Amino acid sequence: MSTENKSLAVTENKFEVILDRIVRLEETGVQFPKDYSPENAARSAWLILQETKDKGGKAALEVCTPNSVANAMLKMVTLGLNPIKKQCYFLVYGNKLECQPSYQGSIATAKRFGLKAMHANIIYKGDQFEYSITPNGLTVVSKHIQTLESLAKEILGVYAVANMEDGSIDTTIMIMEDIKKAWNQGPMNGNSPAHKNFPGEMSKKTVINRACKTIINSSDDAGLYGDDDEPKASPTEAHVSHQIAEKANKESIGFEEEETEDAGYQEVASNEDEENQREYEAALAAEESTGKGPGF
Predict the structure, then answer these.
(1) Domain layout of the chain by residue ranges
(2) Lateral strand order in the sheet of 169-175
């Protein structure tokens, strides 16, 4: 058997082990959404990972420890996310692979916890905008009138309206200053082409994520989404950290062993086009500042 074929066989064996663990999740009582196939999602993720390379051009499946790959895929299916639908992305964090929900994934998950629809709107300088807070603490927009003239003016803030299945409505409002603070916490510092060219759309995604995470984290399965309190390193810093760790004298780690945790992270390049990659970096920026998951 050639070296290439042998490597492929080892990789496929890893996937079968992971798939077996996913199947056993159902046997232990983990409930998945009725319209969700964890096995199909896992196979889709595995196909994506076959083509995924880190910033240094190395395959993610070679860079990341087998345990971290397994855990990332287990997190994906536990959240009921599908990478083909861009509901999550895979990131390299040192020598670990992590599954990061996208804002589409946040909406999909929130719908499983009672969200019926989510809409976001931009508040421009010159708009007539009024809101109030009800006695039970819900925020309600009572008036928002825009003109074509105001659309060309400064963005003051953005709000997202969550319509729930039980008929309740709640609104999340963020002023532009807070949105920019969120962006500034991440590796792109709000300076990606997407942020510069489409600040309104990026702002809407930020507030949508905050609104969705409030719904998700207040549910019985709040622990599904982990919160990060500290900003992580930039992609460049992560690449340097990984190179240092790779060249250090370390014992190789087996599939069943505990893996060490390296500082820093870098975005994993996938089959996304360049614009989507840049936008995703923006997502990480907002996520890390709010501690509520991807903020774009």
Answers:
(1) 3-102+230-272, 109-217
(2) 115-124, 155-164, 169-175
